[in-house]
User: Fold this.
Amino acid sequence: MPYLLTINGQSHEIDVEGDMPLLWVVREQLNLTGTKFGCGMAQCGACTVQIDGVATRTCVLTVADSVGKNIVTIEGLQSPQALAIQNAWVELQVPQCGYCQSGQVVSATTLLEQNSNPSDADIDAAMSGNICRCGTYPRIKAGIKMAAAQFYNAAGAA
Amino acid sequence: MNINRFLKSSAGHQAVDNSRRSFLKVTAGTSAGLMLGVSFNGSALAQSAATDAALELNAFVSITPDNVVKVLIKHLEMGQGVYTGLATCIAEEMDASWSQVECEHAPANTAKYANLLMGQQGTGGSTAIANSFMQMRQAGAAARSMLVSAAAAQWQVPASEITVSDGILTHGVRSATFGELAIAAAQQPTPNAGSLTLKTPAEFKLIGQENTLRKDVGKHNGTAIYTQDVKLPGMLTAVVAHSPRFGGKVKSFDAGAALARQGVRQVFEIDSGIAVLATDYWSATKGRELLSIEWDDSAAETRGTADILQQYRGLVDTAGAVAETHGNAEQTLAQSADVTELVFEYPYLAHAQMEPMNCVAQVNGTSAEMWYGCQSASGDQAAIAQLLGTGIEHVKINTVFAGGGFGRRANPVSDYVLEAVRIARQVQGTPVKLVWSREDDMQAGYYRPAYVHKLSASQDADGKPAAIQIRVAGQSIMAGTSLGAMMISNGIDITSVEGLSDMSYDIPERQVELHSPEVGIPVQWWRSVGHTHTAFSKEVFIDALARKAGVDPVVYRLELLKNNPRETAVLKLAAEKAGWGTTQLPAGWGRGVAVHTSFGSTVAEIVDVSVQGNNFKVERVVAAIDCGIAVNPNIVRAQVESAIAYGLSAALADEVTLTAGNVDQTNFHTYRVLRMNAMPSVETHIVPSTNAPSGVGEPGTPPIAPAVANALAAVTGRTFTRLPLKLA
Assistant:
């Protein structure tokens, strides 16, 4: 049956089985291939998108459960925090193989949208669900801090 | 403007024959091992087949009229930075602006794009920069020379008076961009290699600098394309049900329920199992769940890893094939009253790269076109051609970014590649994307082999090792592969003992022996190959001997490295930067060291750990590396960080076990890998050097596990001889 999804601000009517994970709808029906398949059981975070502002693993979220939600994939990230994260990723040359990085960027953006001055422990807590086998973790952490500095300082906090 | 038409009508040249453009000549040796001459035969006026509007100056460099320098990269970009590194060498000698450089993967073409250290096109062994440093610089210098000649002819001035900087050619008041001269440059005769003058290191503007942002772009915003993202008209997605045991075969199967499922198009048997083809991945994988298969395990490996390790423990008590001998270590040890003996054990390891294996193939009769992260272009191309009974010229490989590799994608028998071709040839003309799930990937084998080592040593009156005997037991990676003839001699697979048979420590009597039992578990190289285990035994054992001698572990090593200035310098640099012996650690913390040379480079790592009860955390790693000239210091640091993370994952958690022939691990909840919360801070120091570049992708991995084990020993007083490391 058709499902009406709101993805990156656009409505899509998708006619698939209700138990199909959102990941495959996004990747194969809508050709938004930035969101990656890594494990299929919410262990690695490569498939992370924002659902109503929350970083969510789409490999285990069914299309039926995605109806009525505000879905934002890596292609649709637009917030100032997302831009700051992506700029920091380029400047610090965070990605190596890059396969996990869409998920990393979505998770990091979500963290920053909720917490403009995350501590090391906050970053560990928010990012440990995203595996990077290239081990870019130190640069991810530095990238989040670089991006955060914009908002933290802009807010005039001490 | 249609450049192709312009070229044909104005110059009348036909496409240049491939054979005339194979121009590599290996000439006299230097400290780099190879000095590469480039001779460009025939006209460089190129067909612009690869890049529509680009004018080809040589096999690596094209320029578009809109001023883009296109660089073809002969190695697979899998995160290690080859796009950036190779392009840096070209742009340096071209005097191109870094911002005008774009990269793409070269096609499979051994004659043009061989790895000069391998003799075939392929990426591995940390050789990407080492084999191409001079070749890429010469290609850049040749392109520059053609641009200068074109400008000289156009402006009617001597070439020697033209300067080039940042992608602009200048003479007096006249100047032109590369793009403006592209067409004219492509018509210039190709320069002789001997006429090219390369820069001295003092003249480098890009090599060794920090101002070169990576060229493998689109990874921060999801636009970079991997195999998983390739989509072709009419393409089907395939999954395969593999035998649960290695060596198992299909006895019978029932595809009825699978074929009845929505989206499933075909189900058939191939060599490696039952293939399910569907319109999409979800349908294929749900269809696979509906298969009913009976397996024939008569030729399968049915042992578990406990049985296999037990066998290896017995083997290291017996004499093996001699890999290296000096003096009579066995006799000296037999006569010694005090021998230190340690037995080390290493598990099988999966590569667990983030992108599970996959491959897109389209077969039309005896020709094939492929799209994937191809790491062994020559090997895969030959294997596909052989399977299809055709020539390699009928196998076209389009290489895309790989989501990690760590050795896995360079499979010596092209396992996943041939699986894709075997499926695609059953549906002639239809492109097929073979996708492995994480479970498929984790359980498909080609692991780093399990090993048992036994090390025995005696010490002289000063506590220095007098004699050492080392026995290694574990599967040969090279046996049965096309590389076996080169890598195995007299029963010794050099990759099983590398790092031990050629250790840098000055020990008067030494013997290294090897057992290579045959086991039915597929094995393969894994980031840093034999050094993944040999460095651990060597460095933990040396630490144990230092403790027994009552000597500081750094001081003890330096004493044994007196004849090795390179390892001495790297170790001293790491020790100094880490504050070895000068900074106080908090209570419950320990500091450990390891130094190891692999792939031509030396890395020392000093690790701080904190211990609380039976738990520990690696807090900080200080690394020093000597890799010759660091073409891109930022990427060198990134690779050392990466190599440490990868090795640390194995030190802390990675382990594949089998029970009765079945792999126990399925996904990241059972094969636990390093996550952000366990990652230490890493600080990397590069030894300044003017030597030719050597390996960078792998040499950072071997020292990390022994450095952590030695740090734990410093806290606990215990010696750790098993990976992954556990306090209890």
Remarks:
- Chain A has a mean pLDDT of 96.
